[in-house]
TrEMBL record, chain A:
It comes from the Bacteria. It holds the Pfam family ABC_tran. This is ABC transporter ATP-binding protein. PANTHER family: ENERGY-COUPLING FACTOR TRANSPORTER ATP-BINDING PROTEIN ECFA1, HEAVY METAL TRANSPORTER. Keywords: ATP-binding, Cell membrane, Membrane, Nucleotide-binding, Translocase, Transport. It is found in: Cell membrane. It comes from Brachybacterium vulturis. GO terms for cellular component: ATP-binding cassette (ABC) transporter complex. Gene3D superfamilies: P-loop containing nucleotide triphosphate hydrolases (3.40.50.300). Residues 3-236 form the ABC transporter domain. GO terms for molecular function: ATP binding; ATP hydrolysis activity; ATPase-coupled transmembrane transporter activity. SUPFAM superfamilies: P-loop containing nucleoside triphosphate hydrolases. InterPro entries: AAA+_ATPase (IPR003593), ABC_transporter-like_ATP-bd (IPR003439), ABC_transpr_CbiO/EcfA_su (IPR015856), ECF_ABC_transporter_ATP-bd (IPR050095), P-loop_NTPase (IPR027417).
Automatic annotation (TrEMBL), chain B:
It comes from Brachybacterium vulturis. It comes from the Bacteria. Keywords: Cell membrane, Membrane, Transmembrane, Transmembrane helix. The chain crosses the membrane at residues 12-31, 43-68, 74-97, 109-128, 148-171. Pfam families: ECF-ribofla_trS. One of its GO terms (cellular component) is membrane. This is ECF transporter S component. Gene3D superfamilies: 1.10.1760.20. InterPro entries: ECF_substrate-spec-like (IPR009825), UPF0397 (IPR022914).
TrEMBL record, chain C:
PROSITE patterns: ABC_TRANSPORTER_1, ABC_TRANSPORTER_2. Belongs to the ABC transporter superfamily. GO terms for molecular function: ATP binding; ATP hydrolysis activity; ATPase-coupled transmembrane transporter activity. Residues 4-245 form the ABC transporter domain. This is ABC transporter ATP-binding protein. Its main location: membrane. The lineage of its organism: Bacteria, Bacillati, Actinomycetota, Actinomycetes, Micrococcales. It is found in: Cell membrane. Transmembrane segments: none annotated. InterPro entries: AAA+_ATPase, ABC_transporter-like_ATP-bd, ABC_transporter-like_CS, ABC_transpr_CbiO/EcfA_su, ECF_ABC_transporter_ATP-bd, P-loop_NTPase. Keywords: ATP-binding, Cell membrane, Membrane, Nucleotide-binding, Translocase, Transport. Gene3D superfamilies: P-loop containing nucleotide triphosphate hydrolases. GO terms for cellular component: ATP-binding cassette (ABC) transporter complex. SMART domains: AAA.
UniProtKB/TrEMBL annotation, chain D:
CDD domains: EcfT. The keyword Ribonucleoprotein does not apply. It is found in: Membrane. The keyword Transmembrane applies. Its main location: membrane. Keywords: Cell membrane, Membrane, Transmembrane, Transmembrane helix. It is a multi-pass membrane protein. GO terms for cellular component: plasma membrane. This is Energy-coupling factor transporter transmembrane protein EcfT.
């Protein structure tokens, strides 16, 4: 039960190569962060995973089925992708109808619909906004609506593209809880983010992309210890960890409490 | 519109409105048995733009959009382009000061919209278009009247029905923003 | 003359039940860099919209109270003149492309065309901001074929090129990688050094702490604190508004909670380094003397 | 293997020099002033109307093909024009030919009939319409809308007016992009939109409403984006990309075209009336 990218390359129609010979596998129930510079190819990579894009060369296998051999819709039922730009995903005129889109399309029973929608709403904390228009919601909340809409379908893999952008502290905590919950249920979660503190606190496995390629794939502590990888992907440690390192408090720890404990 | 849209918004709306009018008119024309006449659904969108952005936008979007349709088709026929402009203008004028953009779309407004669309259609297709045909192109009067009346009937029906549909959909996208409570 | 003065300002979006801004009183001085913080939906973008006249010119709603921008009441401003005097980078990075230019290079030049800048100067300005943001590789691309972060950089570059004296910047780094984020902040600092007045909304509190002069805290549409960064970031108003502290300040707070408080509460990395290394030396000295 | 990676340009002096020179499409015919080309297109339409039916129109079609190759857009033009000939031409011819009103029909049924005269008439009309289509297609193949607008601005057309036209054309492209966005959103929710014609047609309707609604909400976003770029400032504005001033060649071409037009009118009155 994995998503596997075998030597995958992808070029956009204008000729720009966005992903270059990437090999990557995400197993069921895993929790993975993808980090890297702007334009490194993160969004392109995950769009390849759910079939929205098909590789120019190489293969993408979802549970051993080549995404090129089936429709995007079929792949997408397994692999839910939450768009970087929520406006690209949300078209309902109110939040509730957005959430009930898949149930209505698949003619689910009312109970099943209610149960799944309620669960998705609870996980994302958007209960207050059900009757509102997604267009009027602040960016961050719109993003949660987009996540909830995908959770309703109970996919086996969930991909979140920059869910931390513009999120406040409370939103971050909520997101962290949500990811944990999905992991407990055996759903794999792949998250693209630029928030290094969030990565350090939430993910064990971190995939680093730079210049269209995967340059590292390791536990967070290892990645943030690897000066070479950090330099090549132009990444930085979370501020607290930077401080610990500057002060020579080895090992440069990532969690704030560890840093605090190291200070006499 | 309680407040006239800013000049920038109007300019943008003319461009986008004309494009929508063009696409619908050029590629979604439903043919009828009567030669040279098809059911045009673009007037519904035009009416909606006139309601949302005012008479100037309605007039210019209609005129330019129609010009684009004809310029990429069988040639420009200025009296009908003017008629489309007049249609947008009149709908806009008759619906000045509405609050659709804020999500208000009840029965009174629906009635007002329908009346405005029918009136505007009458002026456009029973007066401007035939008169223009006779003046600019010296077309036989009875032929242009038949064409005009047909256009009047079919455009009135489609514009009212589809226009109401689009407006209510649009108003739904602008529903009352409830009190967004600050805790999640 | 104050840059912006707001007295008892309330704003409610058309047909919203609750006001987005309530009883806002603020006096902003020119030449400073203001950071605006607050939870999602606390009214930060709305505050920017009012300062730049987007409210009431573009968004319907009820605005009460007095707003003076550069000494002139908001209602007396010609909207076009406001757009020339105050640069505004919007929050949403995906909706700021003009749609009428085919390459990033021309997209960035668009604002300069509208201002009537002559060609040589246009080229110079565009090149300058392209270098500043490090987007040389993108200049030939169609603005619609960019990644999220690239779009945000191009949007920022387009406004930067116009070189207005006052800038309102709403979350310019939400989609940016750490390095680009630092670069954007460095640019903002240079702008300030050139004498520009800047209002910056940002969730990344660590960076705000490093760069801004003063901080405005919003909570549920109300301004709950305004003052020098050092004071505001160490005050309880920040917690009350649900805004996290900078990591270094958080470390200091946790130390204090354990009865090992520092002499001063740092908000920047440098300050933290100084006070912590002092502590480290102290303890090692204690150690050796014992 | 992927080889066509676009190399980023180096922003050196030679690159920047492009912006100091007038915009060029790299072909002398296409680099004629867009307004001159527009005038030529109109005059050519007049000429077509003056020339004897069928032969004249056919000659204009042929001329258009030759011009297209001269302008370096031959392939594109021929592929579009061929489709027009098949679709528009075929349709018009059939519709026109089956309404013979005279007696010596080859075949008749109810109101329909085909006769030698109806065939000639239909052919004449069809080729005439095709010639008009050829002129129009050629014009748009030669002149990017952006250049037409620049030329209009050069002769004093207001920037807002030229923006409206440019934006209209752009919005048509944007609508296509909107359709793709909505389709992508549908697909990612597991709604089948690929496959048979029936399935695609079924997917079409639910896409329409969101596409138009998002086009409408784009109006506001676009307006704000333009306002941020000081679109509404009324001072003199400048052009980044600019056109060459019309020169002697432009006037010569226009003159030649005028002579041709006058000639065709005289011809129509005196020779082949
Ligand atoms: N639609 C497109 N057409 C052409 N090129 C594109 C398109 N979308 C992205 N690209 C290019 O492909 C490269 C990779 O883009 P991608 O969106 O995958 O980056 P990313 O890692 O997600 O970056 P970000 O963090 O900024 O979102 C970029 O250089 C970008 O310019
Ligand atoms: N166009 C609009 N119409 C109606 N209500 C709106 C509109 N824009 C914002 N609001 C509401 O006004 C309130 C303040 O929103 P605002 O966008 O100013 O928050 P913010 O502090 O910028 O949030 P974020 O951190 O998510 O950007 C919210 O309750 C929001 O839902
Ligand atoms: Mg991305
Ligand atoms: Mg905001």
């Amino acid at each position: 039960m994995t998503i596997r990218l075998d030597d995958v390359s992808f070029a956009y129609p204008d000729g720009s190569l966005a992903v270059d010979r990437v090999n990557l596998a995400v197993a069921a129930g895993e929790r993975v962060a993808i980090i890297g510079q702007n334009g490194a190819g993160k969004t392109t990579t995950v769009k390849l995973m759910n079939g929205l894009l098909r590789p120019t060369t190489g293969r993408v296998l979802v549970d051993d089925v080549d995404t090129a051999s089936q429709t995007t819709a079929t792949t997408a039922r397994q692999v839910a992708y939450v768009f970087q730009n929520p406006d690209d995903q949300i078209f309902g005129t109110d939040v509730r109808s957005e959430l009930e889109y898949i149930p209505r399309h698949d003619r689910w029973s009312a109970e099943r619909t209610n149960e799944r929608v309620r669960r998705a709403v609870k996980m994302t904390g958007i209960g207050k906004y059900l009757d509102l228009n997604p267009n009027d919601l602040p960016f961050a909340i719109k993003k949660f609506v987009a996540i909830a809409a995908m959770l309703v379908g109970e996919p086996r893999y969930v991909i979140l593209d920059e869910p931390t952008a513009g999120l406040d502290g409370r939103g971050l905590a909520l997101l962290k809880r949500l990811i944990g919950q999905l992991e407990d249920e055996g759903t794999a979660v792949v998250t693209i983010t630029h928030d290094m503190r969030f990565v350090a606190d939430t993910f064990d496995r971190v995939v680093v992309m730079a210049q269209r390629q995967v340059i590292a794939d390791a536990p967070a502590t290892e990645i943030f210890d690897d000066d070479d990888v950090l330099a090549r992907a132009r990444l930085q440690r979370p501020v607290g960890a930077q401080l610990a390192q500057d002060l020579g408090l080895a090992p440069a720890s990532l969690q704030l409490d560890d840093v605090v404990a190291l200070i006499p | 519109m309680n407040r006239t849209p800013s000049p920038v918004t109007q300019v943008v709306a003319i461009g986008i409105g004309a494009a929508l009018f063009f696409v619908l008119g050029r590629f979604v024309a439903i043919p009828t048995p009567i030669p040279n006449t098809s059911i045009s659904i673009q007037y519904a969108i035009l009416a909606v733009f006139a309601v949302l952005y005012g008479p100037v936008v309605g007039a210019l979007a209609g005129f330019i959009g129609h010009l684009l349709i004809d310029a990429t088709g069988y040639g420009i026929w200025i009296s009908w382009e003017l008629a489309s402009g007049v249609f947008g203008l009149i709908v806009g004028v008759l619906l000045l000061r509405n609050a659709v953009a804020e999500g208000e779309f009840g029965r009174p407004l629906a009635v007002r919209f329908s009346v405005a669309v029918v009136l505007a259609n009458a002026l456009a297709w029973l007066v401007v278009a035939p008169l223009g045909d006779v003046l600019f192109y010296s077309e036989p009067a009875n032929k242009v009247w038949v064409q005009g009346s047909l256009a009047f009937v079919s455009n009135s029906i489609t514009a009212v029905v589809l226009g109401l549909l689009v407006l209510s959909l649009y108003a739904r996208t602008r529903t009352r923003t409830g009190s967004l409570s600050h805790d999640r | 003359m104050a840059l912006i003065e707001m007295r008892d300002v309330n704003f409610t979006y058309a047909y919203a039940d609750a006001p987005a801004l309530q009883g806002v009183n603020l006096v902003l001085q020119p030449g400073l860099l203001y950071g605006v913080v607050g939870r999602n939906a606390s009214g930060k973008s709305t505050l920017c919209n009012v300062m730049r006249g987007i409210v009431p010119n573009f968004h319907d709603g009820e605005l009460t109270g007095d707003v003076d921008v550069l000494g002139t009441p908001l209602r007396d401003w010609d909207p076009a003149e406001l757009s020339r005097r105050i640069g505004y980078v919007f929050q949403n990075p995906f909706t700021q492309i003009s749609g009428i230019r085919d390459t990033v290079f021309e997209e960035i030049a668009l604002g300069l065309e509208h201002l009537g800048v002559d060609r040589e100067q246009m080229i110079a300005r565009v090149i300058e901001v392209v270098h500043e943001l490090g987007i040389e590789a993108l200049v030939e691309k169609d603005p619609n074929g960019l990644s999220g972060g690239q779009r945000q950089k191009v949007a920022f570059a387009s406004i930067l090129a116009m070189d207005a004296d006052v800038l309102v910047i709403d979350e310019p780094t939400s989609q940016l990688d750490p390095e680009s984020t630092e670069e954007v902040f460095a640019i903002i600092r240079r702008l300030k050094e050139k004498g520009k007045s800047i209002i910056l909304v940002e969730h990344s509190i660590d960076l705000l702490a490093e760069y801004v002069d003063r901080i405005i805290v919003l909570d549920g549409g109300r301004v709950t604190a305004e003052g020098p960064a050092q004071d505001v970031l160490t005050s309880p108003a920040l917690d009350a508004a649900g805004v996290p502290r900078p990591e270094v300040t958080e470390i200091a707070h946790r130390l204090e909670a354990q009865g090992r408080g520092l002499d001063t509460t740092p908000i920047t990395k440098d300050a933290a380094r100084t006070v912590l290394s002092a502590r480290l030396q102290e303890t090692s000295r204690d150690h050796s003397t014992r | 293997m992927i080889s066509n990676t676009v190399a980023p340009p180096t922003l050196d002096a030679s690159y920047l020099d492009r912006f100091r020179k007038p915009a060029s499409l790299g072909n002398p015919v296409r680099d004629l002033n867009p307004l001159v080309l527009l005038a030529c297109a109109v005059l050519l339409a007049v000429v077509t109307a003056m020339l004897p039916e069928l032969v004249g129109s056919a000659a204009v079609c042929l001329a258009a093909v030759v011009l297209a190759f001269l302008g370096g857009v031959g392939r594109r033009f021929v592929s579009v024009f061929a489709r027009l000939v098949l679709a528009v031409g075929g349709f018009l011819f059939v519709v026109r030919v089956i309404f013979a009103k005279d007696a010596d029909t080859y075949w008749s049924w109810g109101p329909f009939g085909i006769s030698p005269t109806s065939i000639t008439e239909a052919a004449g009309f069809t080729v005439f319409v095709l010639a008009m289509c050829a002129i129009l297609t050629l014009f748009f193949a030669f002149v990017p809308i952006r250049h037409l607008m620049l030329a209009l601005e050069d002769v004093g057309v207001h920037r807002k007016a030229s923006y409206i036209v440019l934006a209209s054309f752009q919005a048509i492209t944007d609508l296509g992009a909107n359709v793709r966005t909505v389709l992508d959103a549908q697909k990612s929710r597991g709604v089948e939109t690929e496959g048979s014609i029936v399935r695609r047609a079924g997917a079409f309707l639910p896409v329409l409403a969101p596409v138009f609604l998002s086009a409408m909400s784009q109006t506001e976003e676009r307006a704000l984006a333009l306002d941020a770029r000081a679109f509404n400032v009324s001072s003199r504005h400048s052009q980044f990309v600019f056109l060459r001033r019309p020169g002697i060649t432009d006037w010569a071409v226009l003159g030649g075209m005028l002579v041709l037009t006058v000639g065709s009118i005289i011809g129509k009155v005196l020779l082949w009336h």
